[in-house]
Amino acid sequence: MPEETPHTDMAGLTARLSLRPAEVYREVKAGKLKTTIVEGRTLFAEADIKAFEEKRDAERNDLADEFTKWHEELAPPPPPETEEAKPPEPPKPDPVAQAPALADRLLLHAFRSGALGVHLDPVENGFRALYRRDGGLDERGRFSARLGELLRQALKVKLGKPDPVTQPVAALAKIDHEGQAIQVQGTIASTLLGEHVHLRFRDPRKKDGLEDLGYTPEQAVAVRKLLDGRAGVLLVAGAADPFASRHRLGLADMLAAGNRLVVSLEHRVHFKSEILVQLALPTGEGAEFAPLLAAALAMSPDVLFLDDVRTAEEAKGLFEAVAAGVTVVAQLRSPGNADALLRMVEFGIGKDVLARDLLGTVARRSLRRVCPTCAGLRPLDPGEAALLRAEPGTTVAEPKTCTECGDGFRDRRILQDIWVNTPEMSALVARIEPPAQELRAWGSKAEHGIANAARTAVLDREIALADVANLLGS
Ligand SMILES: [Zn+2]
Prior knowledge:
By secondary structure, the chain is of the alpha/beta class. The chain contains 16 helices and 18 strands. Strand 2 (36-38) and strand 3 (41-45) form a beta hairpin. The chain starts with 6 loop residues before the first strand and ends in a 6-residue tail after the last helix. The model is unreliable at 163-170 and 204-208 (pLDDT under 50).
C-alpha cells in the first residue's frame, strides 16, 4: 500500500537531493536509483532514496579521501622551521573546487622531481599519471575515473585556448616554481578511451640539443652565433630523412628558447613539433611555393625553415626572404657543403647574392662509433699526435671485440662539417665554378669544419683514428 511505504515524487526528490530532473533521470538510467510505478506515477521509495544517498555519500567520501591522499603526496617539502609545529586538522576538501590546485600540485611535483613532462592518460577504470623522463615514461600513480576526470578538466582549463603561434599543435600555460615561471606546453589527443593530456615543461635550464646532433661544443657555439646575427641563409646538406627532421627541430628548439618565432615549411611533415609553426607545402604538378611563402612571411617570423629545397622557385624565394630581414635555414639533398652551394648556383641564385647572404653551410657525416664496452686504449705515436694536434702521451680508443658488438664498433657517430661564411669563404663563393676545388680545400681546414670535429671525436675516444685519418690532412 502506498500509505505504508513512504514515497516521494520527482519534485520532492529533486529538492531533497539538490539534483535537476535530468540528473535524476541519468541516475535512474545508470541503475543507481530505483523507481516505483504507483497508479501510473513514477515515484521513489524511501528505502531506495536512502540507498542512493548512502552510496553517493560513500563515493564523495572516497573521492575526498583520494584527493587528500594525492594532495599530500604531491605536496612540496615543508620549510624546515615549520616541521615541529603540529599542523591543524585540515577540513574535508572539496575536490571539484580544488581540482585546479591539485593539477598545479601535480605539475610542480613532476617538475621538481626532474620530469620533462606529465601525461594524464585514460585507462580502463580511471586515469594514470606518467612522468616523462629522458629514458621513457614512469607511472607515478593512478587516479579514479572521477578524480582523473576532474584533473583532466582542470589541466585543460589551465592550458586555455591553443596558442595562436603554435595552434593547433599546442597550448601554453605557466606554473610558478620558486618565483620562476616555467612554461608548460600541452597537447590534447582524443582516443577511443578518451582524451589524453600531455604536458611538457620548457625548462629555462634545459640543455642545448645540438651536441646530441653531433655538434662539438665549439660548433654549437658557432652556429648559435650565426643564427643570432644578421639575416641570411644557413644551408644544411644531407639526405631528407628523419635525422634531417631531428636536426631541424634541434635548431628550432634552440631558437624558440630565445623566444623567436620559427615557421617551418615542410614538403613532408616527419613529426609534429610543439615549438614551431609548421606549414605543409602543396605537392605534385603545378604546386606553387610563392603563396605559402607569402603566408609564412605574413606571420613576421624571425626564422624560416625549409625542409628540402627542390626547385629554383623555392631557392629564389628563400633568398628573397633574407631581403625581408628573415633568417633562413634551408635543408637540401646534397653530399656536402660545396655541392650544396653549387646546387644553389644551378637553381639560378647569383654567385654575388650567395656570397653575400650566406651565413654558412652544415653537412653531416656518419661514422662508426667505437664500442664503449670493449674498446681498449693505446698511446698515439708522434706522427699521429701531430695529426691530432695532441700532446705526446695522449691515448685514443683501440677497437677490440665483444659479444655486444662483434667487430669493435656499435651504432653511428654523426660529425658535422660546418663552414662559417668568413670574408675568405665569401670571396671563394663569389667565383665558385664546378668542381669548386679551391672552396673544398678551404673547407677541409675550416675552423668548425670536419677536420676539427673529427679530431675532437677521436680524442673523446668515440671514433677510431683510422676511420678519419684521411680527413685530418697532413
Ligand atoms: Zn664491443
